[in-house]
Amino acid sequence: MEIVDTSSLSEPSVAAGLAGGCGIDAVDFRHDFPALNQKIHGKPLVYLDNAATTQRPQCVIDEITRFHREDNSNVHRGVHLLSERATQAFEATREKIRHLLSAEHTHEIIFTRGTTESINLVAQSWGHGNVGEGDEVLITEMEHHSNIVPWQMLCERQGARLRVAPITDEGEIDLEAFERMITDRTRLVAVAHVSNALGTINPIKRIAAIAHARGVPVLVDGAQAVPHMAIDVRDIGADFYAMSAHKMYGPMGVGVLYGRTELLDAMPPWMGGGDMIKSVTFEKTVYNDLPHKFEAGTPNVPGVIGLGAAAGYLERVCLRNIAAHELGLLAYATRRLHEIPGLRIIGTSPRKAGVISFVLADVHPHDIGTILDQEGVAIRTGHHCAQPVMKRFGIAATARASLGLYNTTEDIDALIRGLGRVREVFA
Ligand code: PMP
Questions:
Q1: Ligand 1 atom having least distance to the Cα of 116
Q2: Domain spans of the chain?
Q3: pLDDT truncated to tens, each residue of the chain (427 aa)?
Q4: Cα(110)–Cα(108) distance, rounded to whole angstroms?
Q5: Ligand 1 pocket check for 114: Cβ under 6 Å
Q6: Which of 33, 157, 317, 390 makes a 20 to 30 Å CA pair with 188?
Q7: How far apart are CA 182 and CA 185, in angstroms?
Q8: 6-48+318-425: which CATH number, 3.90.1150.10, 3.30.1330.30, 2.120.10.30, 3.30.450.20?
């Protein structure tokens, strides 16, 4: 699913119909997530902060606990059975993620600490060899700081130039301007698949086609896309794809960099240490093959195994059905939010994932978040690590409700009731 046009979906009943085959039922899925079953300030928790991090299903929690209880051992180096079991589970996750992203080879899946580290790996390893003085890296105005600062650091160090493609009032990339900004000096395009601040689903396939026609590789920040839609890195033309486990119902502190073999093969390691070597003498070190070349030191083994459990969970639930369910909810939430006087949604592209940023008259978003919390409704407020997006829309911050597969229309109703309370307080 490359682009989902939200306007073609209406309310949850329609989405439920679309979900058909796999029979997604968000009420049932709630039971898989123990953290959802609690009261906050005496009210049932309504968790709408999924873009910051998702909750974990019991199967992920169980798998991590099982590892610690039964298989805890370091990977790759042991000949004893515990180490073999740990290695087997660790490497099985690599294959699950290859499948999740429809990558060609398992060795194209590198485990990192998350999206941020994945992007930094490319900026440091690939960047130093490929971006020189006077060269350009092209990003967009809607990027998360994690997809801005590593490129800024690289450009500063190499004497290169960071260029920024503008976005429209709806919160879409201005593709004509983007295309014009690819020059003979452009070495890389780095762009979010889904904006965490606006919810926009970017047309990556088109962006990659434009960039590739000029011989420029594309890095996609997939942090906000992976939990919401089926991804095919080859179909969309991503040369690199970065993601975090904790945004897709897995644990924190672990993520993935996908890279095409040809690019990864040509890149030097970025960290030295154990596991990334074949042999070491004081005179010369021979680096390991992919993917280990980029995985120095003891990895987050329980984290990777938890990521594997999360990928298995998503596969069972079926990502296409999650997308249909969330888009139905998004349409419902958007309609209900529009009914609130003084509320303005920031990011109005017809192609959005389940992220809704808004401002409410002159109420500070922080106050919105605090009052909603008293009602048991968890949302995020602030600049969402996307300060240039805030600047673009002339605001300092937004309130952001973001959806997960377990959210329901009742959750949206609770949000709307909570916003009614905000209006009463600030009337
Ligand atoms: N990119 C986007 C679009 C994000 O939403 C986030 C997390 N908010 C990141 C990058 C960084 O992810 P992490 O903190 O897991 O490295």
A1: 16
A2: 6-48+318-425, 60-315
A3: 333 444 344 444 333 433 444 555 666 789 999 999 999 999 999 999 999 999 999 999 999 999 999 999 999 988 999 999 999 999 999 999 999 999 999 999 999 999 999 999 999 999 999 999 999 999 999 999 999 999 999 999 999 999 999 999 999 999 999 999 999 999 999 999 999 999 999 999 999 999 999 999 999 999 999 999 999 999 999 999 999 999 999 999 999 999 999 999 999 999 999 999 999 999 999 999 999 999 999 999 999 999 999 999 999 999 888 999 999 999 999 999 999 999 999 999 999 999 999 999 999 999 999 999 999 999 999 999 999 999 999 999 999 999 999 999 999 999 999 999 999 999 8
A4: 6
A5: yes
A6: 390
A7: 8
A8: 3.90.1150.10
Q: What is the DSSP string of 329-389?
A: HHHHHHHHHHTSTTEEEE---SSB-SEEEEEETTB-HHHHHHHHHHTTEE-EEE-TT-HHH
Residue 140 Cβ inside 6 Å of ligand 1? The answer reads no
Pocket test of ligand 1: the residue of 244, 383, 398 to mutate, having most ligand atoms within 8 Å of its CB, is: 244
Q: For residue 157, how many other CB atoms are within 10 A of its CB?
A: 13
Structure tokens at 101: 């992203």
Residue 144 C-alpha to ligand 1 middle, in angstroms?
7
Q: Annotated catalytic residue: which of 22, 155, 318, 385?
A: 385
SS3 401: strand
Counting ligand 1 atoms within 8 A of each CB, the residue from 113, 115, 198 with the most, and so the one to mutate, is 115
Contact between residue 353 and residue 333 where contact means Cβ atoms under 8 Å apart: no
60-315 and 6-48+318-425 share a CATH fold: no
Give the residue, by CA position, lying nearest to ligand 1 atom 6: 223
Q: How many CB atoms lie within 10 A of CB 403?
A: 28
What letter would DSSP give residue 246?
G
385 carries an active-site annotation: yes
380: Cβ below 6 Å to ligand 1? Answer: no
Task: Give yes or no for residue 120 CB within 6 A of ligand 1.
Answer: no
Q: What residue has token string 């329980």?
A: 302
Indicate if ligand 1 lies below 6 Å from the C-beta of 192. yes
Backbone angles phi, psi at 290, to 5 degrees: -65, 145
User: If you measure from the C-alpha of residue 419 to the centroid of ligand 1, how many angstroms do you get, rounded to a whole number?
Assistant: 27
Domain 60-315 in CATH 3.40.50.10770? The answer is no
